[in-house]
From TrEMBL:
Residues 291-417 form the NACHT domain. Gene3D superfamilies: P-loop containing nucleotide triphosphate hydrolases. This is NACHT domain-containing protein. It holds the Pfam family NNH2.
């Protein structure tokens, strides 16, 4: 290996950074750990096991040579440093390229799907390692772009690496096929219909006496549509603890704050009561209205029951008309979605319906995607306020917006208490 490197370097005009850093000590480290970290996210064991490590070690040396050359050129040409000034960075650069996160980023250049490298993380890693301050004109993005081009040349010149990459590609295809083999092939709407009826058909009477629970009450027969008014502005709830801290820090006069809040509340109430009263079902079925709305209401005001009724409405109409082409109701309880998302069971709403543990019925996500693209669905997100962590709630709001952008013809309803709603997203209605 050392003999190969000496011969290879002799054919190239490399700078002193390469000759100083890629030393005999570096080769010892290379044999131990460097190549393993370098290719950690690129080649799996199944691909590299049949081969000696030499082709990969050669690739590491060639790639690092190009990276060091790019750094030296950047310091010399762009930053106009002398050779003596550049030498002052040798120890820091040596430490930098041995950092695990840096090795993994540089190794990503060998990924067949890679078209750019994370130069911002490289810059952050230099700061994190508390290395010598780089000149203001130093540009990590230019270095990564140049380095990526050189790695592509290394790949094209090495038959051994190309062969390993082909095996990597085949391994990736095999993995995808295995994952797809686990996908449920059914999109059984009749069974989905029965599951909705079983799950939501009867009112939940857990809080009543045992004798009352012995006789199920049919939601479809008992449901009375709530009345709503449109809300153009929502008065945000100021947390008491936040208000207290402002007062203690003398940033807020308590009496003045209370007076202002009362004035704002009265103005919002006047605007609210000036809006006409409408049946919530009329609002939902209004074809002139935009596809997206939020239903706001106090706890126990029937927001979840409304969504369950809409799912049951699909059941009744589908059976009545014997038509399974009516828009499919998808009711996503957001607390269950976030529980599965946090557990790694799903990354988006389609995956949640596809195979998440807390989804009451699984539908093939590929066929569901087709239905959503055709606009043939009513998607209901229940309980935005039940996501108590504000960062996670903001994340879900972003996911819902992304969902509406991807499926613009799908009707979407979100329910929330007022405290869980961020202003100015969707058309908003409040329970009367």
């Amino acid at each position: 290996m050392v003999e190969w490197f000496t011969l290879w370097i002799g054919q190239k005009a490399v700078g002193f950074l390469v000759k100083t850093i890629i030393s005999e000590e570096f080769f010892k480290d290379l044999v131990k750990d460097y190549a393993k970290d370098f290719f950690k996210n690129i080649f799996n064991n199944a691909v590299t096991a049949p081969f000696k490590q030499e082709p990969l070690q050669k690739a590491v040396v060639m790639a690092l040579t190009e990276f060091l050359q790019a750094m030296q050129e950047q310091l010399k040409v762009r930053c106009r440093l002398s050779e003596a000034e550049i030498q002052n960075y040798t120890e820091d650069i040596n430490k930098f390229i041995r950092d695990k996160s840096v090795k993994e980023i540089l190794g990503q250049a060998f990924d067949i799907k890679c078209d750019s490298l994370d130069f911002k993380t490289l810059a952050d890693s230099w700061k994190r390692l508390q290395l010598k301050l780089l000149p203001p004109k130093f540009n990590w993005q230019t270095i990564t772009e140049q380095y990526l081009i050189q790695v592509q040349d290394i790949l094209s010149d090495s038959e051994e690496l190309r062969y390993i990459l082909e095996l990597q590609k085949l391994s990736s295809i095999d993995k995808t096929l295995k994952e797809n083999a686990d996908i449920p092939k059914d999109f059984n709407l009749p069974q989905y219909l029965e599951t909705i009826r079983e799950r939501y058909g009867n009112l939940k009477l857990d809080s009543l006496e045992t004798t009352a629970r012995e006789h199920p009450v049919n939601l479809w027969q008992m449901f009375i549509p709530q009345n709503v008014r449109q809300v153009y502005q929502v008065l945000p709830e100021l947390p008491k603890e936040y208000l207290r801290r402002l007062q203690e820090s003398k940033q807020l006069d308590a009496e003045f704050a209370i007076e202002k809040l009362q004035e704002e509340t009265e103005r919002y109430q006047r605007n609210y009561f000036e809006q006409p009263i409408r049946s919530v079902l009329d609002v939902i079925r209004d074809k002139q209205r935009k596809n997206y709305l939020i239903i706001l209401g106090d706890p126990g005001s029937g927001k979840s029951t409304l969504l369950q009724y809409l799912a049951l409405d699909w059941v009744e109409k589908t059976l009545e008309q014997n038509d399974f082409n009516l828009p499919i109701p998808l009711l996503i309880e957001l607390r269950n979605y976030m529980r599965d998302r946090d557990a790694g069971s799903c990354n988006n709403f389609l995956q949640f319906y596809h195979n998440s543990p807390n989804c009451f019925y699984h539908l093939n996500q590929h066929k569901l995607h087709q239905q959503l693209k055709a606009g043939n669905a009513l998607v209901m997100f229940d309980g935005l306020d039940e996501i108590f962590e504000s960062a996670k709630r903001e994340e879900v709001i972003t996911c819902i917006h992304r969902f509406t952008n991807e499926y613009p013809d799908v009707q979407v309803i979100v329910t929330s208490r007022i405290i869980g709603k961020r202003s100015q997203e969707l058309s908003c209605y409040c329970k009367k």
